[in-house]
């Protein structure tokens, strides 16, 4: 447990006991209020949510350290495991245990996660994307910023913040390098998609080499990396109570550079962020160019995290003002135009077109004929979601998992919208969860549409990979969203489904098929974020107070002219 441990022993109400700082208190009161919502969750860590969760999901968060000592197979991993533990700033070496034997999958998961840790100059700095030696490596031997997030959160929840701190400092250092694609210089704030450690056996030295999109397939810069970096910095600060990392000039500058990139003025008429295809988790051509929900939700969350982390000096204040204005405009735009439920669908179905002037109802001139047939069947009477993209005469009605979950976690979704998203997941269980959680998007594109939209991508064939494949990593986002909306039973059901296969199948990167029944055509095995995502989901279910690390309460931070200390409190 981290020093900002939450005491949940009285009345199930969360209260920080030893952070020595009041800046977290109000937010945690919010969390406990939130957890007291309609279907309350018992956040007393000494008791389980119900009998079932203890008998079927008994968890010790990580195998005890002596496990590694006794395990012949993992003797190779002693060094970095030891360094991870011995350098823990909290000075304890055994991961928490609630006295129960770990679930065998949890046990194996932690072992695999620790094997994926990458060392740089004898310090842990991240986790490799996949440890699958049987497959072609491509760039899976690198530390991806987005992939490291679930690993980082798992380490934070297990009271091991050091690797996260190292990662944050190394990546902010990489951000300051000059980056070029051919002769074109990229923006200063661009964070790498991934990096790797290069060993020079002659000089016996190590250096870091990073990819900002200039080596990536398709040469797209990762817009999401900078946002995840800010979100992780806030998670670290929240979890450890250590504000000194975020306060470092490097980190303040890193944040400001990212913000400068995405808050700069241009020709935009919308507050959403205009992006190229493939600039996020879906890093190939998949028709997500324009204003993809994944980026908009991460943008919103990163802005809110930055508002909490920016120092209140002149520069910080200037950014805070710009952030607050953007947050207002962005939330209005997203909640109004990206939101789809049965009523909204019916309205679009009946839209008039070619309206001119401020009074137009169909502002983007969307043609009702562009509504795909599937959306009428997919839309339940109860439920709704943020659609994939909105731009002039173009609405991408696909459902995307990451964007919708992050919308819930960041409170971009209103509480009503958040429960509607959960309702839809329940109502469309077969389609979205099926036999392996969780669809990256729904539905798939086939034949002509696949040819036109993906450019005939053989990896993204129908119901595979990014094109309607099922990605185990997404379980952590689903679980966090379930806890936030007071519906942990949905996550529990999904995890049970995943548990039947994940370990047996060696933690694949993704599954294929309409129901996610088949291990993905080109899926890597021992994909680190599949492992970390599962462990994280289990930890959050066991102790929902962890949610505060990755969740933000409703809009209070958006009030203009906020003082920094006050912004932490909301
Ligand atoms: C694939 C995924 C991307 C991930 C990378 C490494 O390219 O699309 O989101 O970061 O693999 O796992």
Automatic annotation (TrEMBL):
UniProt GO MF annotations: endo-alpha-N-acetylgalactosaminidase activity; sucrose alpha-glucosidase activity
SUPFAM superfamilies documented for this protein: Six-hairpin glycosidases
GO biological process terms on file: sucrose catabolic process
Keyword Hydrolase assigned: yes
E.C. code: 3.2.1.26
Enzyme class: hydrolase
Superkingdom, taxonomy of origin: Eukaryota
Reactions catalysed, as given in the entry: Hydrolysis of terminal non-reducing beta-D-fructofuranoside residues in beta-D-fructofuranosides
Annotated stretches, region: Disordered: 1-20
Biased composition (Polar residues): 1-12
Keywords, ordered alphabetically: Carbohydrate metabolism, Glycosidase, Hydrolase
Function: Invertase that cleaves sucrose into glucose and fructose.
The family this protein is said to belong to: Belongs to the glycosyl hydrolase 100 family.
Protein's name according to its UniProt entry: Alkaline/neutral invertase
Source organism of this protein record: Actinidia chinensis var. chinensis (Chinese soft-hair kiwi)
């Amino acid at each position: 447990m981290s020093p900002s441990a939450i005491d949940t022993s009285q009345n199930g109400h969360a209260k920080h006991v030893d952070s020595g700082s009041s800046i977290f208190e109000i937010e945690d009161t919010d969390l406990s209020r939130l957890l007291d919502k309609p279907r309350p969750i018992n956040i007393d860590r000494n008791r389980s949510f119900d009998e079932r969760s203890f008998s079927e999901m008994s968890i010790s968060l990580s195998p005890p350290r002596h496990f590694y000592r006794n395990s012949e197979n993992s003797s190779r991993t002693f060094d970095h495991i030891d360094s991870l533990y011995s350098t823990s700033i909290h000075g304890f070496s055994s991961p928490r245990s609630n006295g129960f034997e770990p679930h065998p999958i949890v046990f194996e998961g932690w072992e695999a996660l620790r094997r994926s840790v990458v060392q740089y100059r004898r310090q842990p700095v991240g986790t490799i994307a996949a440890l699958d030696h049987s497959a072609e490596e491509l760039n899976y031997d690198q530390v991806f910023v987005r992939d490291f997030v679930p690993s980082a959160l798992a380490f934070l929840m297990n009271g091991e913040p050091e690797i996260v701190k190292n990662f944050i400092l190394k990546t902010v250092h990489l951000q300051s390098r000059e980056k070029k694609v051919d002769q074109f210089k990229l923006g200063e704030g661009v964070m790498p998609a991934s990096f790797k450690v290069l060993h020079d056996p002659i000089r016996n030295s190590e250096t870091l080499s990073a990819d900002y999109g200039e080596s990536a397939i398709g040469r797209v810069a990762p817009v999401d990396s900078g946002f995840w970096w800010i979100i992780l910095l806030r998670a670290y600060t929240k979890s450890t109570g250590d504000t000194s990392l975020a306060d470092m000039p490097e980190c303040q500058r890193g944040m400001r550079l990212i913000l400068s990139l995405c808050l700069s003025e241009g020709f935009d008429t919308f507050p959403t962020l205009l992006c190229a295809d493939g600039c996020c988790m879906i890093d190939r051509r998949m028709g997500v160019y324009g204003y993809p929900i994944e980026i908009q939700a991460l943008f919103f969350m990163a802005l809110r995290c930055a508002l909490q982390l920016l120092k209140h000096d002149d520069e910080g204040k200037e950014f805070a003002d710009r952030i607050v204005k953007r947050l207002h405009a962005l939330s209005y735009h997203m909640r109004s135009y990206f939101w789809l439920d049965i009523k909204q669908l019916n309205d679009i179905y009946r839209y008039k077109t070619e309206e001119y002037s401020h009074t137009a109802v169909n502002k983007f001139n969307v043609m009702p004929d562009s509504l795909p047939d599937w959306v009428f069947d997919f839309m339940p009477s109860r439920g709704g979601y943020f659609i994939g993209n909105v731009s002039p005469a173009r609405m991408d009605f696909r459902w995307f998992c990451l964007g919708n979950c992050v919308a819930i976690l960041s409170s971009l979704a209103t509480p009503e919208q958040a429960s509607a998203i959960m309702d839809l997941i329940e109502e469309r269980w077969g389609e979205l969860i099926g036999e392996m959680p969780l669809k990256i998007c729904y539905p798939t594109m086939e034949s002509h549409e696949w040819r036109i939209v993906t450019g005939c991508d053989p990896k993204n064939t129908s119901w595979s990979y990014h094109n309607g494949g099922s990605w185990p990593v997404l379980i952590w986002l689903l679980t966090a969203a379930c806890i936030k909306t007071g519906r942990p039973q949905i996550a529990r059901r999904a995890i049970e489904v995943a548990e039947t296969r994940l370990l047996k199948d060696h933690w694949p990167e993704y599954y294929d098929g309409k129901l996610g029944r088949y291990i993905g055509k080109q899926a890597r095995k021992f994909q680190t974020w599949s492992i970390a995502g599962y462990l994280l989901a289990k930890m959050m279910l066991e102790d929902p107070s962890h949610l505060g690390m990755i969740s933000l309460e409703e809009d209070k931070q958006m009030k203009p002219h906020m003082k920094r200390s006050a912004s932490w409190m909301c």
